[in-house]
Design brief:
Layout (H helix, E strand, L loop, with lengths): L6 H6 L20 H10 L2 H5 L2 H14 L5 E2 L6 H8 L1 E4 L3 E4 L6 H5 L6 H4 L1 H14 L5 E6 L1 H10 L7 H9 L1 H25 L3 E6 L7 H18 L11 E5 L6 H5 L5 E3 L6 H7 L5 E6 L8 H15 L7 E5 L9 H14 L6
Parallel strand pairs: 1-4, 4-5, 5-6, 6-7, 7-8, 8-9
Antiparallel strand pairs: 2-3
Helix pairs in contact: 2-4, 4-8, 9-11, 10-11, 11-12, 15-16
């Protein structure tokens, strides 16, 4: 399908672009009043996430408000373990909870990789509806959590600050954790392939918690499984190939290894310089990032100044290969006007690098 604006996809392929494209993690979220109105209509977060109509509505809200260069499917990474029967709910003020945690041999044995077209059919229907609603305006990004990040929620039973139960399993029973990761790896691969078949034009793997691991443990328990997924995705070939983005929060120690992962692009957070990342990865892949999300609480002048710093840090006159993003998601307390300022500055200022 012809795209009116394919700048994002061309940047991921390291092709020449007229400017640096921008989209934002959590661009459809609680900072937007229209999102909150839809969420109220849906009755709950799960009511929102499991309804193709509502998911389509909130996916389009930020791209209708701002001239963003990509839309991202509205969903949640924890829909995958929910489809495994762990019973996900969101408790006000506490975040996600699973009524069934995975902590022993019996619960690990009971895990299975769900059929995404059956158990997660509402996601595929949302992809189709969003693609239809976008009508070729900009590309749609699909996504999943990484096997390790999903495992942390499954073992802990929800959010955690210390990852005590996960680390306990990793060091006492690494065989059990590897079994969880094997199931998650197949589940994520099947899920992303189903999203691609439904129509997403790029996919991203969110490894939010890989950065909590030691150097060697990250390679064994996180990156290895993400590499397996990248190798197993039905991404097509040539210009129709669906680019893959890997993002580990806190990935500065593993830039070289990430650059050799097989993914087209690597997302980095604000603790890593883009020039430093380019050099570590020898310009083999595109980069995504990496403004500190807290910048969006600053004044207009400061937002514009910090955006220019990120673009200057990447540099590379006349070449693509950079997708502007935050180093993590948009905070719920950010003013919508601040996001508009950021998008405007990135589009205007970056053009000097693309002439």
């Amino acid at each position: 399908m012809h795209l009116d604006n394919d700048t994002f996809l061309r940047a991921l392929r390291k092709q020449k672009t007229e400017y640096t494209p921008i989209w934002l993690m959590r661009q459809a979220g609680r900072y937007l009043p229209e999102y909150m109105a839809t969420r109220t209509k849906a009755g709950s977060f799960m009511g929102l996430a499991t309804s193709p109509q509502f998911a389509t509505e909130v996916t389009l809200q930020p791209v209708d408000r701002y001239p963003l260069d990509a839309a991202i499917l509205f969903s949640d990474i924890l829909t995958v373990p929910d489809a495994m029967g762990l019973d996900l709910s969101f408790v006000a003020g506490e975040g996600p909870k699973f009524s069934k945690a995975v902590r022993d041999e019996e619960s690990v044995r009971a895990l299975f990789s769900p059929d995404p077209t059956e158990k997660l059919g509402y996601v595929m229907e949302a992809v189709k509806q969003i693609r239809k609603a976008l009508n070729g305006r900009i590309p749609l990004i699909g996504f999943s959590g990484s096997p390790f990040t999903l495992a942390t929620y499954m073992v802990e039973g929800g959010s955690t600050r210390d990852f005590r139960l996960t680390k306990n399993m990793l060091y006492k029973r690494p065989d059990l954790l590897h079994k969880i990761l094997d199931v998650n790896c197949k589940a994520v691969t099947d899920y992303l392939n189903a999203q691609i078949e439904a129509g997403v034009q790029a996919v991203m793997i969110f490894d939010t918690w890989g950065g909590i691991l030691s150097h060697a443990d990250y390679l064994e328990f996180s990156l290895d499984y993400m590499e397996r997924i990248v190798q197993s995705l039905d991404v097509g070939t040539d210009e129709e190939k669906v680019p893959v983005i890997l993002f580990t929060k806190g990935s500065g120690a593993w830039l070289k290894e990430l650059g050799n992962s097989g993914a087209e692009a690597i997302g980095v957070d604000w603790t890593v310089g883009l020039k430093q990342a380019r050099e570590a990865m020898e310009d083999k892949v595109a980069l995504q990032g990496n403004l500190d999300p807290a910048v969006l609480f600053a004044s207009e002048d400061s937002i514009r100044c910090q955006a220019r710093k990120v673009i200057d840090d990447f540099g590379m006159v006349g070449q693509g290969g950079h997708v502007f993003n935050l180093g993590h998601g948009v905070d719920k307390a950010v003013l919508p006007e601040s996001v508009g300022i950021l998008v405007d500055e990135v589009h205007k200022y970056s053009r000097k690098y693309h002439q």
